[in-house]
Each structure stands twice: as C-alpha cells, then as structure tokens.
Specification:
The protein is 0% helix and 49% strand. It is an all-beta fold and 120 residues long. β7 and β8 form a beta hairpin. The model has no long low-confidence stretch (mean pLDDT 95).
C-alpha cells in the first residue's frame, strides 16, 4: 500500500490550506495519522496526529490553535487544515500512518510530501 498526499501550494500569509492524505491499498480505519513538516535547512518536525479513535495530539505548540486534523474513514483519507498561516509554516508536509501516534517517527506508511509555501 501507499499514501498519496495532495493539496499543497502557494498561500498568502493569513490564509488557509487543507492537505489530504489518502491511503491506497490498505485501510486507515485502525491507524493513527501523523503530520510532519520539513523546512529548508531544518530537521523534520512532527506537528500533529489524529488517533484511530479521532483524538488529536499536538507534537508542537507552534501550530496549536491554527492547525487541526480530521479523518473520513469512508474515503480512507485524513486531512490537515491549516489556518492563519505564517511564512514560517513554509515547508514540505508529510503524513504518516501507523498503529499509534507514539510510533509516528518510525511509521510504516509515508506520503510523498507536498510543498506548502506561505508568501505574499
């Protein structure tokens, strides 16, 4: 199986974006989905996770109150909603899936990444 990400692009500061993370060839129903990002010259950063039961875990406070996660098991897809975007949110965003949010760094399934650029 694989994960296909979509939804990246260019957004103005203060704008919003929704990224999609679709599983192909396996079901997301019983898996947690985590989101990471990597900015140029920086290490990969875990930002948020949604558990199989729908609970949210923030890995960093820098997105709390601006980023949310959701999932639609009928579509086998998870989503990352980013609002009030800032230039420092510019990065390649990745989603990853495994049995628990605690396993995110070594998740079994990873998306290909999608570029988000926040700029005027």
């Amino acid at each position: 199986g694989q994960i296909v990400e979509s939804g990246g692009g260019l957004v103005q500061p203060g704008g919003s974006l929704r990224l999609s993370c679709k599983a192909v060839g396996f079901t997301l129903d019983y898996l947690a989905v985590s989101w990471f990002r990597q900015a140029p010259g920086k290490e990969r950063e875990g930002i948020i996770c949604i558990s199989s039961g729908g609970g949210t875990l923030y890995y960093t406070d820098s997105v709390r109150g601006r980023f949310t996660v959701s999932r639609d098991n009928a579509k086998n897809t998870a989503y990352l909603q980013g609002d009030s975007l800032k230039p420092e949110d510019t990065a390649v965003y990745y989603c990853a899936a495994d049995t628990s949010c605690a396993l995110a760094d070594h998740a079994a399934y990873w998306g290909q990444g999608t570029q988000v650029t926040v700029s005027s």
